[in-house]
Design brief:
7-stranded mixed sheet; mainly beta; 4-stranded antiparallel sheet; 57% strand; 11 strands
Length: 110
């Protein structure tokens, strides 16, 4: 079993920044494979960023604005979100091979 706990969401104006954190616990020995997804109202959940085999993969819509990073020893993954846009408004979920956190709300006002 793996438990994922997100934090760091909130309300921010367009152009602002937020940093999300995800703390993993349980049967996880590497942050490789951890990622962030988001789901906006009325839309499907979509991949935002993921750490895969040491590399970072990003959705086209966030490239150049978002950065995923992590601390393998502490089993923490971060999502630094800069130049936020209203279309980034969504619930953001941390994920690890089928395990999901409870989500953290991000609202970007115009």
């Amino acid at each position: 079993q793996v438990q994922l706990l997100e934090s760091g969401g909130g309300l921010v104006q367009a152009g602002g920044s937020l940093r999300l954190s995800c703390a993993a616990s349980g049967s996880i020995f590497s942050i490789n494979g951890m990622g962030w997804y988001r789901q906006a109202p009325g839309k499907q959940r979509e991949l935002v960023a993921r750490i895969t085999s040491g590399s970072r993969n990003y959705a086209d819509s966030v490239k150049g604005r978002f950065t995923i990073s992590g601390d393998n020893a502490k089993k923490l993954v971060y999502l630094q979100m800069n130049s936020l846009k209203p279309e980034d408004t969504a619930v953001y979920y941390c994920s690890f091979y089928g395990y999901w956190g409870q989500g953290t709300q991000v609202i970007v006002s115009s």
